């Protein structure tokens, strides 16, 4: 799929985000979490945003999700810059964030029927109860929590981390978004099920046409799933390019460092493709 030719859905344009803080002596400091960051997500594309902890990945994702406002620069959705007047609910219908921690991000006191039904009703208030139920089943099937009747009345506490992350992804899909921002969605999961979640993201973009920003510190998983890769270092975007080109010919010393640190560069791309997704 050549998604680099398809239209840009979501873009950050020279975005700077600063936080006020204090240093050890109590003096006022400013942290430049993102410093002139630009990135673009095309329709149906998976872009990996790679960088070590503290490089500014979550901060740019929060700006892309309109949770925080850039100090400078613009976020554009379908070409239109976000302003104060951009309605939050309308924006959230288009851009959904999936968090790292599937244990904290789901209300453990509510069933999956409630968790998913609530989002469906907010975004489609006209649907009847029966239609909402049908849609919940459809979403559970979509993320391979099957048969859905075995899951719909369960609580998140009775699910594994991987199953919970599938529920988080189903919840994001409930609004039929154009974009999913997945912030380290596998880093809290067992190694054995990480590939299942990556394969699920890939299937979702193929079947639903959703664009996905896959955020990770792990260049091997980025390579496995992404069409293009963006590398962040100390708040700056240091390198962007088609994944295989970037990996075979890294330009920035930090990208080379990340590749060297991967356990076995010749086997960075997993050779076994699990059947289950
Ligand atoms: N709300 C905040 N207040 C102050 N500093 C923050 C805040 N959020 C993030 N930072 C700082 O911004 C930098 C980038 O953080 P973050 O975007 O979370 O990085 P990453 O997701 O790549 O690990 C870090 O130095 C972090 O301490
Ligand atoms: Mg982060």
UniProtKB/TrEMBL annotation:
InterPro entries: AAA+_ATPase (IPR003593), ABC_transp_ATP-bind (IPR050319), ABC_transporter-like_ATP-bd (IPR003439), ABC_transporter-like_CS (IPR017871), Oligopep_ABC_C (IPR013563), P-loop_NTPase (IPR027417). Keywords: ATP-binding, Nucleotide-binding, Transport. Pfam families: ABC_tran, oligo_HPY. It comes from Microbacterium esteraromaticum. The keyword tRNA processing does not apply. CDD domains: ABC_NikE_OppD_transporters (cd03257). PANTHER family: ABC TRANSPORTER, ATP-BINDING PROTEIN, TRANSPORT ATP-BINDING PROTEIN. Residues 10-259 form the ABC transporter domain. GO terms for biological process: peptide transport; transmembrane transport. One of its GO terms (molecular function) is ATP hydrolysis activity. This is ABC transporter ATP-binding protein.
